[in-house]
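[job 0417] fold request received: Carbamoyl phosphate synthase small chain
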Amino acid sequence: MKKKLILESGEVFHGTGFGTNADTEGEVVFNTGMTGYQELLSDPSYAGQIVCMTYPLIGNYGINRDDYESIEPAIKGLIVKEICDLPSNFRSLLSLDEFFKAKNLSGISGIDTRRLTRLIRDKGTVKGKIVNAEADEKTVVEELSSITFPTDQVINVSTKSSYASPGRGFKVVLVDFGSKNGILRELNQRDCDVTVVSQNVTAQDIMLMAPDGVMLSNGPGDPQDVPHAQEMIRGILGKVPIFGICLGHQLISLACGAKTYKLKFGHRGGNHPVLELKSNKVAITSQNHGYAVDQESLKNTDLEETHIALNDRTNEGVRHKIHPCFSVQYHPEASPGPEDANYLFDEFIDMMEKFKSQEPRTKNQDYA
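[job 0417] inference complete; emitting structure tokens
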């Protein structure tokens, strides 16, 4: 099944298709992870994107039942140098090709992924389309030039109805903007009583549940496309402890008056070093985002910067100076990736415990 990847900028990569024979188009990005392709494929934050894997061999340990980050993949396609047709792992149930066929996804292998990655690094993220080998390249380029990125990605991947994951500990409301299962697992491991709610939840809805804390999840797309979430955050700020991850981090920053911007090619992979400014310690983190918080804009807010990325010095975390609220740009639930940063869930537990023990008149003190 001969296929080719055509970019909006006119470059063409010839290869072999896997999965379904259907065409697929999206934003072409790259991920530097050596493992974790199953978690990546099922991560809702990849909605609308075609992901190029920089590691040359993908699929060698197959697809198993345990490593899904969501029930249905939101990714648009996958680009690999070499796909493994005969995986070897005791947990493997499907090959990557079989999984793609079952989920009606399209991918392409056999192309120069190093050249594609360098192109994205030089020119920035581009739109692309995986098509059959005989497709007219000029026509596809014209089609890609007229496509605009959707603004409803969070709505498409968020849960449509609330559900519970019971526990005997703190009651946490997890706002699902495209949440990974890893966040729920980390909260459950700490015996939290979690209620997962849709992205359109209001501040009033949350406070009626009387939670001990609120978790704002990761999710796809531009944070400025979710203005109602900013209003919700302003409505609960100071009334309940808040912990935000990735998109949740960006939404907290926007709600407090900061600005965000689109990165040239984003951060995606499981090997990104992040410096915690207070302790001067470095954690190797898992990341997946195409937008960042404008550091200069934080100066006019009640937020202080807590973490920075060592690769490009961009913002990776904030904490509110007055209210119990903090967030990070990376993924402390580490699915996939290193577990250096999962202590942040313990900090969230400590924050809820401290907040709950305060007298009402002192609940707005500095929690930094």
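[job 0417] notes: The chain has ten helices and 19 strands. Confidence is low (pLDDT under 50) at residues 361-368.
[job 0417] exit 0
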